[in-house]
Prior knowledge:
Elements: E1 6-11, H1 15-27, E2 33-38, H2 41-50, E3 55-59, H3 68-78, E4 83-87, H4 92-100, E5 105-108, H5 114-147, H6 152-177, H7 184-199, H8 203-214, H9 225-228, H10 236-242, H11 245-253, H12 262-268, H13 289-303, H14 314-324, H15 332-343
Parallel strand pairs: 1-2, 1-3, 3-4, 4-5
Amino acid sequence: MKRENTKILIIEDNPSSVDLYQKIFKIAGRTEFAITWSDNLVKALEYEKNNIFDLILLDLNLPDSRGFDTFTKVKEQAHDTPMIILTGSEDETLAIRTVSKGAQDYITKNQLECNMFLRAIDYTLERSLIQKKLQNSKNDLEVKVNERTSELQVEKKKLQRILIETIDAFAFALEKRDPYTAGHQRRVAQLSSAIAELVGLSEEQIKGLYLASLVHDTGKISVPIDILVKPAWLNKHEMNLVRLHPETGYVILKDIEFSWPIAKIVFQHHENINGSGYPQGLSGDVILLEAKILRVSDTFEAMISHRPYRPAIGIDGALKELSENRGIFYEPVAVDACVELFTKKNFKLK
Length: 350
């Protein structure tokens, strides 16, 4: 989504690195980027104080500030301005820490790849725009309710539709960020709905589950793109960051006034019925049935799809995995319905 006059503040003390970023933008034809550059923190904070920027690219180690303290000082003044951290491989753990505290992404400078760099910037800008739309929609809902109490239900449904459309756009933007999971949320939503119908959920429950499935990985906006596309198994720090995504998704969605427990379903979609899941370690009937169904459909779709760190295992392999852990990790009625869809009802994912 190309915008006019996108203002980017680069806080970087290495002129060669700044020249490289500028060259990437020029080669890519990104003439809409208006760049302001600062080689120290004091000047950067002055620029930020007197301007409204759409994005900040931040090197943590500057002549007058170093490490996490640099991020904290910029974050305190920049508030909601999205930030991408520019880091060396030796500071990757520190960069991951900044992401857990509010940075949108990080880029490893000595492994810089042009397309990934631009994709991280575009995704961060698009995410920021959609979050503003979400907040504006929520604000509109509150205003309408206060102004016209007699029309509450009509207005609520109308604005709820707008929120759903915005959430759909958010899900689409998230999938564009990672080419390996493109279409994942929509396929999971399709399978979740089919399982829910087979086990006898109501029409309203199915609708809520479909929407929750559509945005179940929204929390991965907090996961750096380097981790999402890493062609190897994740280390402990990276895995811990990935495991934050159900809670992050819950935080993003919990204040939106849906008629369904969407935020709660998203929060619980990696819980196992024996209590071994995350992030809360819930078990049994404490977990919503919709979340149990989403756990099965999400796992199944992931297993039959290629990932950069492992090949797809196919439908038969995925059904075998679900069946072997039926009643351990996965809700039996959800597993049985999934197996029936693919072995008896000729169900196809689109």
